[in-house]
């Protein structure tokens, strides 16, 4: 009796109630995912100080932990086509929350002498849960972002609606990140890592219980007919053959993959060489997350109409400029000017760390509009999988670059040159940014 069009066009009061509940579910989901920085901040110090790993090993472990994210297309296909008790989004959010709670609880109750291999397995399990949850959440956002029906007279409202919801979940995630990094920076020297891991496991368990109490039918999602995995795979393959989707996703992934990340080296440089306190790094990350929060507001109010190509290219160029700034920082340029290292780390390092993710907001708004109806989960999952793989490649390239310029846990003489190489590689994708559409295009081609 309820059709996709009917859900969208009628029942204003019922629709409003579903929209509020949907925003609560998404808000909690994205907030918790943003708060994941809380245990991960602890993991970095735990690996460095507790397990005494070197910079390259730290970066390899951090990059490899993202491997479950590469499987997102599989989770998306299953989410799009396999219904559990008549639901195909909420059960997967709950499953992901359960796996995360289980993994962090396992780390929390493990002895301090836990092996690197064991903690790697637990982190992989946690990221598997996180990736399943993210796929389901992203699919809901993509579906709801396309809610204005084709019959509406103002088809220009469609990208606006998508941008509003994208900005909402972006802000929710950023708020979780702000609080997670703030609490992480405050308590990392006051509480044991195990107690902090335990706290996060309880938080994700709470998300699990809240999620299973919600019926998907009450969220007001559009009703798409259930399709088999084979049919869904065929539709995904067909969608990815569309030039505007294929070229855009390829560019976006490669724009990360070509950058040899030196995050592990920078972490050791700041904590081991400069002896910067963990609370300062926490504040740095809080500042970064606060700028992400501000970015969501600015984009939603002022930048939704800006060409995605121009906006994303500008962000890419800004990333390269801040990497050159890092080169000057490591060279001691700002120190000679009287700028304290802690000030630079809080402001500039915190901003650069999150600037990598600024591109996601305009790009996901674009992709949500290009997604064919019914395979939103698959497309968004494929995108995030490609980005996850790109970050893994980027991390491994960073390890190779650090080895080439002979950076160790105690010798950072080659670090400035490595940062210049990193900045140059960051600029390269701008030269083929024509792969991104100049303007956000909707599925509705009617002009008048």
UniProtKB/TrEMBL annotation:
Alphabetized UniProt keyword annotations: Membrane, Transmembrane, Transmembrane helix, Transport
Pfam families: BT1
GO cellular component, one term: membrane
Keyword Oxidoreductase listed: no
Membrane topology qualifier: Multi-pass membrane protein
Transmembrane portions of the chain: 28-47, 101-125, 168-189, 245-269, 281-299, 311-330, 342-367, 379-405, 417-440
Subcellular location: Membrane
Record-linked SUPFAM superfamilies: MFS general substrate transporter
Source species, domain of life: Eukaryota
Keyword Amino-acid biosynthesis part of the UniProt annotation: no
PANTHER family in UniProt: FOLATE-BIOPTERIN TRANSPORTER 1, CHLOROPLASTIC, FOLATE-BIOPTERIN TRANSPORTER 7-RELATED
Family label: Belongs to the major facilitator superfamily. Folate-biopterin transporter (TC 2.A.71) family.
Name of protein: Folate-biopterin transporter 7
Taxonomic source organism: Pisum sativum (Garden pea)
């Amino acid at each position: 009796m309820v059709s996709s069009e009917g859900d969208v066009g009628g029942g204003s009061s019922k629709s409003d109630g579903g929209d509020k509940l949907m925003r609560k579910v998404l808000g909690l989901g994205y907030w918790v995912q943003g708060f994941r920085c809380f245990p991960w901040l602890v993991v970095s110090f735990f690996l460095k100080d507790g397990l005494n790993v070197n910079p390259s090993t730290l970066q390899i472990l951090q990059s490899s932990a993202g491997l479950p994210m590469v499987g997102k297309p599989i989770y998306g296909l299953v989410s799009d086509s396999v219904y559990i008790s008549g639901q195909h989004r909420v059960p997967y959010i709950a499953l992901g929350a359960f796996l995360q709670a289980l993994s962090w609880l396992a780390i929390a109750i493990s002895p301090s002498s836990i092996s690197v291999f064991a903690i790697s397995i637990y982190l992989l399990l946690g990221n598997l849960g996180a990736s399943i949850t993210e796929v389901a959440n992203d699919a809901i956002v993509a579906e709801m972002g396309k809610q204005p029906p084709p019959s509406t007279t103002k088809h220009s409202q469609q990208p606006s609606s998508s941008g509003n919801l994208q900005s909402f979940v972006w802000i929710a995630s950023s708020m979780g990140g702000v609080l997670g990094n703030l609490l992480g920076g405050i308590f990392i020297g006051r509480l044991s890592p195990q107690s902090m891991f335990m706290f996060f496991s309880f938080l994700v368990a709470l998300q699990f219980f809240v999620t299973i109490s919600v019926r998907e039918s009450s969220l007001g999602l559009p009703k798409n007919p259930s399709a088999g995995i084979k049919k869904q795979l065929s539709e995904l393959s067909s969608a990815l053959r569309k030039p505007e989707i294929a070229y855009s996703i390829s560019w976006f992934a490669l724009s990360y993959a070509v950058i040899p990340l030196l995050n592990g080296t920078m972490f050791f440089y700041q904590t081991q060489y400069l002896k910067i306190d963990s609370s300062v790094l926490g504040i740095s990350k809080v500042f970064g997350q606060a700028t992400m929060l501000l970015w969501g507001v600015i984009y939603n109010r002022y930048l939704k109409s800006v060409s995605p190509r121009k906006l994303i290219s500008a962000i890419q160029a800004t990333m390269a400029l801040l990497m050159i700034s890092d080169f000057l920082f490591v060279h001691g340029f700002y120190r000679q000017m009287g700028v304290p290292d802690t000030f630079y780390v809080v402001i500039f390092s915190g901003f650069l760390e999150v600037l990598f993710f600024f591109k996601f907001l305009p790009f996901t708004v674009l992709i949500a509009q290009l997604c064919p109806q019914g395979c939103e989960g698959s497309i968004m999952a494929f995108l995030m999988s490609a980005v996850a793989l790109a970050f893994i490649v980027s991390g491994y390239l960073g390890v190779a670059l650090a080895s080439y310029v002979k950076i160790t846990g105690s010798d950072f003489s080659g670090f400035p040159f490595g940062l210049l190489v990193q900045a140059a590689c960051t600029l390269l994708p701008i030269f083929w940014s024509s792969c991104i559409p100049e303007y956000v295009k909707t599925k509705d081609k009617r002009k008048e």
